[in-house]
Write a structure and sequence with these properties.
eight-stranded mixed β-sheet; binds magnesium ion; binds adenosine-5'-diphosphate; single chain; globular
Length: 967
C-alpha cells in the first residue's frame, strides 16, 4: 500500500514489476499495531490504519449522505478470513463501520431531537437478512429462519426487488440497534449450526432505513428517506484455486450463485460505463443482485471495500479481488435525494392501492403489471397463463397492497406511536441481554465456538444450580438446554451444578467429546474445557469462580479458539503430532498436511453424521496417500477421504477438492431435510453420498525395479499390489525380457557386466503383464496401467472380468541408442504398475441385501513375491558382481509414517472402543429394564473383553476398577 495505490507481487516471480491498482483509498492493517488495555488495536507504526481511520474516510461519508436523503450501500468483498466482518462489524472494542455508523447516527438524531419541533421526526428502522444457497432468511425473525425455501423475493414496479414480510424493526437508540444486530447474529449462528451450513458462504445484509419528517419553508411536511445497505458478502474464494474438482456432480454451493452473478453484474455495469451501449445487466440471475439492484447500478451512493489477505499462498485470490475491485471502480451510480411532501407520498400509496384492489376484484391483470410482477417471464395476460401463475400474481398483488398499507400507516403514525407498539418486545429483549451479560460474570456457562469468528461466543447456555438436561427440540419434557444440529439426541446429556462443581454425563449413545476425548460417564468440567456435542456443536465451558481462582494463583489459561479445539480433536485421534503446528517451523509441508488433516477430519465427522441421519448407508474415513501410492515418484502426501458402502464394503477414494464439493452438496440436502422439505432426497445420479460401483478405483500399485534390465537379465516377478496404506491387495505377474532387434531371445553370452557398456548401443525388450491373482473379492473387473521412462501417457491393458484376471498383455520396447540417462533410469528407476478395478454390485443406495460382502483384510498370507527371478546357473557368477536389487518398498506414506501408522491404529482402537461402548450401553439398558442398578467388575470386564486397562486408558481416559452405579 502506498498512498491510494495497492501493489502486488507474484511470490513466485519477485523480480518482476509489481502490479499496481489505484483506488480511492488503500489501507494497510496487517502489522504495525498494538493492543491497548481495552483491547483496541492502535497503530504502532505509520502504516497501520485502525478502525477509526477507516470510519472517518468511509463511514462518515455514508452518514452525511444518509442525512441528505441519499440511499447508500457499502459492500465488503474478499476471501474468507481477509477482514470483511472486521471492517463491517468489527470485534469487541474494535468496532467496525456498522456499529460506529449507528452510534454516530443516533448521537446526531438525539441532538436534533432536543430542539425539534412537534412536526419534526427522525425514524430509524432495521432489517437484517442472510442469503444462503439462494434462499433468503430473515435474521430478526427466528420463526422463519428454517422455513423451507426461505422468504420470497418480490418486485415492486417502482422500487424494484424486495423481500416479502421481512421484519423492519423500529429502533430508537444505539443500544437498541446493537441489541437487534446481536440478536440477528445469534439467530444466524443457531441456524447455521442447526443446518450444518458453512457460514462463509452466506451474504449478510443489514439494511437501515433512516426517515426524516421535517417541515419545509412553507410549513409543508416533507419526508426524506435513505436506505443504507451494509453488505458483508460471502467469501470470494473459489472451491479450489486450481479450478475444477473433477467430480461428476455439479459444484455445490461452494460456487456461490449470488457471488458469481455479482461478478457478472459488475462486469456488465463496468462495460456500460465505458460506453458499451447494448450490455444487458443480469440483475435477475441471483437473489443478491436482485436485492442490490439499486445499490449496484441505480439510485445509491455505493462504496466497495475489497479485503485482502497478504500471505503468499493467497496471491491468486488477492489478485482476483483487486481485479474485481478495479472493475467495480468504473461503475457510476446516479443517486438522487429521496424527498417528497409527506401528503403526496401517502396519496400516491393510497391511489396505487385502490388500483391494485380494483385489479384484484376483477381477477385480471394488465399486461404491463403482470410483466412487472413476474419479471417479464411467462405469458403476461391472465387468460392464457397457467393457473398457478395467476395464483402467484394474485398473491403478489395482495402482498403489495399489504405493504403499501403498512407503509401508509407508518407514514401517518407518529414515531412515538410506532415505538410504543414495539416497546414491550424491545425492552424485554434489552433486559434479557443485560441480564445475560451480568449472569456471564457469575454463573458457569457454555459459550459457542464457530469456524467464523463473527459467529463465535454468540450463543450462551447457563449451567444453573441443580441438574439440567441437554437435548434437541424433540425432547419431552423440553430440555433446559436446547441444542440442535447433527447427531444431537432428544436426551443428549445431563449437566449438574452442585456447589459450583460442574459435571456432564452423556445419555445412552450420545456423542460428547471433552477436550478432544469421548466421554461415557459423568465427567467433571473445568474452566476453558472444550466440548463437542454431536458432530458440530462446539462449546467452551466458562467457570467464573475457577477463572478468578486461576487468576489469583497466577495460572493463565489460553482462551480456546475454534482452530485450537479442532486441532486437539485431530491430535487425540492420533492424526497429528502432539506438538501440533509448532512441530518444526521449517516443515512447511508438514504444517500444510496437518492443517488438511484437521480440515478433512472435521469434514469426515460431519459427513458421517449426515449419512447416519439421512440413512445413506455409507461411512467416511480420512486417508493419507503417499505419492508412491498415487503412482508418483515423489511429491507430498495427499489427504483423501474414503467413502465405504456399509452394504457391500465397496470403497471409493475422493481427493480433497472432491470431498469438499461433495460435503457442500450433502449440506444442501441436509438443509432441505432439516427444514422439513418433503422431497429432500435426490436421485442417485445426483446424490453426493452415491458413487456408481462401476466407477474405476485404484486398487493399489506395484513397483517393478528395472536394475536387471541394465545388465540385460530377464525379470520375472510376481509383485505385491499394495494399497495406499501398504496393505496387500493381491499380486501381479510381470516379465521383462531383453531381446534381439527382431525381438528374439538373446544369446547366452549377451549379458552385460557393466551397464554403462550399453550406452550407444541399441536395446530391445518385451514387457509382459500376465495376470493378477488374489484381488479383493468385491472387484469385478480390473486392468493395469503404467508408464515407461519418459512416457506421457499411460499404457493400459484390457479390462478383464475376473477376480483372477489374465491380461496376456505384451508390449515391445526399443531404446536406440541407449543413453546415459536411460541407463540411470534402469539402474535406479522403477515402473509403477497401477491396478485399477471396478467393484461388484450396486453401490450404497438400495444395494441388494444379499450382495457379497468383501473382507479385504482376510486374505491368504502371500508368499514373498517380490524377489527377482534367479537367473540360470550359468549367469549366476556374473550376477554376484552386481548389487542385488532392493526389495520393492511398499508404497506406504513416506513423509510421515508415524501419521499413517497412528491413523491405522486409531481407527482400530476407535472401532474396538465403539463396539465395547455399545455393548456396555446395551447391558446398562438391559439392567435398568430389570430394575438393577449395579454392574460388577467381572461383568464390566466381560463386556470389555478382559482388556479393561488398555481400552479405558487409551480411549476413555478413565480407569475405574470399582462397581459402577447406574444413576
Ligand atoms: N484490520 C485488521 N486488524 C486486525 N485484525 C484483523 C483485521 N482484519 C481482520 N482481522 C482478524 O482476522 C480474522 C478474520 O477476519 P474476519 O473479518 O472475520 O474475516 P472475514 O469476515 O473476511 O472472513 C479475525 O480474527 C479478525 O479479528
Ligand atoms: Mg466474515
Amino acid at each position: 500500500m502506498s498512498g491510494k495505490t495497492t501493489e502486488i507481487k507474484d511470490p513466485e516471480n519477485m523480480s518482476a514489476e509489481p502490479r499496481r491498482f489505484a483506488f480511492d483509498y488503500s489501507y494497510w492493517s496487517h502489522d504495525q499495531f498494538t493492543e491497548n488495555s481495552e483491547g483496541y488495536l492502535e497503530p504502532s507504526g505509520s502504516k497501520y490504519a485502525d478502525q477509526k481511520v477507516v470510519f472517518d474516510d468511509l463511514g462518515r461519508g455514508v452518514l452525511d449522505n444518509a442525512w441528505k436523503g441519499y440511499n447508500c450501500s457499502l459492500f465488503a468483498y474478499g476471501q474468507t478470513g481477509s477482514g470483511k466482518s472486521y471492517s463491517m462489524v468489527g470485534y469487541g472494542s474494535n468496532k467496525g463501520i456498522v456499529p460506529i455508523f449507528c452510534d454516530e447516527l443516533f448521537k446526531a438524531v438525539e441532538a436534533k431531537r432536543i430542539n425539534a419541533g412537534a412536526d419534526e421526526e427522525y425514524q430509524v428502522t432495521l432489517g437484517m437478512l442472510e442469503i444462503y444457497n439462494e434462499q433468503v432468511r430473515d435474521l430478526l425473525n427466528p420463526k422463519t429462519i428454517s422455513q423451507k425455501g426461505g422468504l420470497k423475493v418480490r418486485q415492486d414496479p417502482k422500487k424494484g426487488f424486495y423481500v416479502e414480510q421481512l421484519t423492519s424493526c423500529p429502533v430508537n437508540s444505539y443500544k437498541e440497534i446493537d441489541n437487534k444486530i446481536n440478536e440477528g447474529t445469534r439467530n444466524r449462528t443457531v441456524a447455521s449450526t442447526n443446518m450444518n451450513a458453512t457460514s462463509s458462504r452466506a451474504h449478510t445484509i443489514v439494511a437501515i432505513t433512516f426517515t426524516q419528517k421535517t417541515p419545509n419553508e412553507t410549513g409543508q411536511s416533507m419526508t426524506r428517506t435513505a436506505v443504507v445497505n451494509l453488505v458483508d458478502l460471502a467469501g470470494s474464494e473459489r472451491a479450489d484455486s486450481t479450478g475444477a474438482t473433477g467430480d461428476r456432480l455439479k459444484e455445490g454451493s461452494a460456487i456461490n450463485q449470488s457471488l458469481s452473478s455479482l461478478g457478472n453484474v459488475i462486469k456488465a455495469l463496468a462495460d456500460l460505463s465505458t460506453g458499451k451501449k447494448k450490455t444487458v445487466v443480469p440483475y435477475r440471475d441471483s437473489v443478491l443482485t436482485k436485492l442490490l439492484q439499486n445499490a449496484l447500478g441505480g439510485n445509491s451512493k455505493t462504496i466497495m471495500i475489497a479485503a485482502l489477505s497478504p500471505a503468499d499462498i493467497n496471491y491468486e485470490e488477492t489478485l482476483s479481488t483487486l481485479r474485481f475491485a478495479d472493475r467495480a471502480k468504473a461503475i457510476k451510480t446516479t443517486a438522487t435525494v429521496n424527498e417528497s411532501p409527506t401528503d403526496r407520498l401517502i396519496r400516491e400509496l393510497r391511489e396505487e392501492n385502490a388500483r391494485l384492489m380494483e385489479m384484484l376484484k376483477q381477477g385480471g391483470l394488465s399486461p404491463e403489471m403482470a410483466a412487472a410482477l413476474i419479471g417479464g417471464a411467462g405469458g403476461a395476460g391472465g387468460n392464457n397463463s397457467a393457473n398457478s401463475e395467476v395464483e402467484e400474481m394474485k398473491k403478489q398483488l395482495e402482498e403489495q397492497v399489504r405493504k403499501n398499507q403498512e407503509e401508509m400507516e407508518n407514514m401517518k403514525k407518529t414515531w412515538q406511536e410506532r415505538m410504543q407498539e414495539n416497546k414491550g418486545s424491545i425492552s424485554a429483549n434489552m433486559e434479557e441481554d443485560n441480564k445475560r451479560q451480568e449472569d456471564r460474570k457469575v454463573i458457569p456457562h457454555l459459550w459457542n465456538l464457530n469456524e467464523d469468528p463473527a459467529l463465535t461466543a454468540m450463543v450462551v447456555h447457563f449451567v444453573n444450580e441443580g441438574t439440567s438436561k441437554i437435548g434437541n427440540k424433540k425432547a419431552s419434557p423440553p430440555a433446559e438446554i436446547t441444542l440442535s444440529g447433527l447427531s444431537i439426541l432428544p436426551a443428549h446429556a445431563v449437566v449438574t451444578n452442585k456447589n459450583s462443581n460442574i459435571s456432564i454425563k452423556p445419555m445412552e449413545k450420545a456423542k460428547i467429546l471433552v477436550n478432544g476425548q469421548r466421554i461415557i460417564k459423568d465427567t467433571q468440567l473445568h474452566h476453558n474445557d472444550r466440548l463437542l456435542f454431536g458432530a458440530n456443536n462446539m462449546y467452551v465451558f466458562h467457570h467464573p469462580q475457577d477463572e478468578a481462582k486461576n487468576i489469583k494463583e497466577g495460572k493463565k489459561t489460553e482462551t480456546p479458539t475454534f482452530d485450537s479445539a479442532q486441532e486437539e480433536i485431530a491430535q487425540k485421534a492420533g492424526l497429528m503430532n502432539t506438538e501440533g503446528k509448532s512441530a518444526d517451523s521449517d516443515k512447511m509441508q508438514d504444517m500444510i498436511l496437518q492443517e488438511e488433516v484437521v480440515q478433512m477430519l472435521q469434514l469426515v465427522n460431519e459427513a458421517n453424521a449426515m449419512s447416519e441421519e439421512l440413512d445413506k448407508k455409507v461411512k467416511f474415513e480420512v486417508a493419507l496417500m503417499s505419492p508412491q501410492a498415487r503412482g508418483l515418484k515423489d511429491g507430498r502426501t495427499a489427504v483423501m477421504v474414503k467413502m465405504i458402502s456399509q452394504v457391500n464394503n465397496n470403497e471409493w477414494m475422493w481427493d480433497k477438492n472432491k470431498a469438499i464439493n461433495r460435503k457442500s452438496l450433502m449440506q444442501e440436502i441436509y438443509q432441505d431435510f432439516v427444514s422439513g422439505e418433503e422431497n429432500w432426497d435426490v436421485p442417485k445420479e445426483k446424490d453426493p453420498f452415491w458413487e456408481p460401483s462401476d466407477q474405476e478405483i485404484l486398487i493399489g500399485s506395484a513397483h517393478l525395479h528395472l536394475m536387471s534390465l541394465a545388465h540385460a537379465f530377464d525379470i520375472e516377478e510376481t509383485l505385491a499390489i499394495t494399497d495406499y496404506k501398504g496393505k496387500e491387495m493381491g499380486h501381479v505377474k510381470v516379465t521383462c525380457k531383453p531381446c534381439t532387434k527382431d525381438y528374439k531371445d538373446l544369446g547366452e553370452d549377451d549379458f552385460v557386466d557393466e551397464p554403462n557398456e550399453m550406452i550407444g548401443k541399441d536395446f530391445y525388450f518385451i514387457l509382459k503383464l500376465e495376470n493378477c491373482r488374489g484381488l479383493p473379492p468385491n472387484i469385478a473387473k480390473s486392468r493395469c496401467k503404467y508408464k515407461h521412462y519418459t512416457d506421457d501417457k499411460f499404457t493400459e491393458t484390457n479390462e478383464v472380468e475376473s477376480m483372477n484376471p489374465d491380461f496376456n498383455f505384451e508390449k515391445k520396447y526399443k531404446q536406440t541408442p541407449v543413453t546415459e540417462q536411460y541407463i540411470n533410469y534402469l539402474k535406479d528407476g522403477s515402473i509403477v504398475i497401477e491396478v485399477w478395478g471396478r467393484q461388484k454390485g450396486d453401490s450404497n443406495a438400495g444395494a441388494p441385501s444379499n450382495s457379497t460382502v468383501a473382507s479385504k483384510g482376510a486374505k491368504p498370507a502371500a508368499n514373498n513375491a517380490t524377489q527377482q527371478k534367479k537367473p540360470d546357473n550359468k549367469v549366476n557368477n556374473k550376477l554376484k558382481s552386481t548389487p542385488a536389487p532392493a526389495p520393492v518398498p511398499a508404497p506406504v506414506v513416506k513423509e510421515d509414517p508415524k501419521i499413517a501408522a497412528e491413523l491405522d491404529s486409531y481407527k482400530k482402537r476407535t472401532n474396538e472402543a465403539e463396539g465395547k461402548l455399545g455393548s456396555i450401553q446395551d447391558q446398562i439398558a438391559a439392567k435398568r429394564k430389570n430394575g438393577q442398578t449395579t454392574i460388577t467388575i467381572e461383568e464390566l470386564e466381560a463386556m470389555l473383553g478382559g482388556n479393561v486397562n488398555h481400552t479405558r486408558n487409551e480411549n476413555l481416559g478413565e480407569n475405574t476398577s470399582k462397581a459402577c452405579v447406574i444413576q
